[in-house]
Amino acid sequence: RDVVAAAPRAVIVWGFINDVFRAPAGGTDAALTRARDSLSRTVARAREEGIEPILATEVTARPRDNTWSEVVSGWIGRMRGKDAYQDTINRHVLAINQWIRDQARSQRLLLLDLQPVVSDPSTNRRRKEFATPDGSHVSAAGYEALTAYAVPILTKHFAPAAPGR
User: How does DSSP assign 53-116, residue by residue?
Assistant: First the structure.
């Protein structure tokens, strides 16, 4: 509703991690379905209104700090066959990100693949410098990295076509 009223040329469709974070116990699958449905509806609505949708992948959370209590609780959790909370969230984020990449490809939409920009490639977790102390919000350095990545892509995408093309 807010985007349509502004009548932009394009809209970046980014964000669903709160759907996962806020899912009640046992409700993650339903939250993931709602997130995919919401993203699909947003893309469809933008197109209906003549607004170009641009998809963006979500960023993962960073791992917890290596404090003694977190190391011990992580070790106990692994012994019990459980993932750390951040790893569980990140697994769902990465799955929906793949769905977003597939949607962008199949619908021929511009994709801003943000997750790899701020993540450690060996773990797919957000790098500490790109997260605020709570581990879930993007830090100023993270936004700088995301901006440095996105601006050239968007500038090229929106550049006027050369004459004769």
Answer: EEEEPPPPPPPPP--HHHHHHHHHHHHTT---HHHHHHHHHHHHHHHHHHHHHHHT--EE--GG
Strands 52-56 and 111-112: what pairing? parallel
Task: Check residue 124 and report its DSSP letter.
Answer: -
Say if pTM beats, i.e. exceeds, 0.85: no
Q: Across the chain, what does the average pLDDT equal?
A: 86
Distances (CA, A) of 159 to 26, 149, 162: 46, 16, 9
pLDDT tens by residue, 98-138: 999 999 999 999 999 999 999 999 888 899 999 998 888 89
Rg (CA), the chain: 18
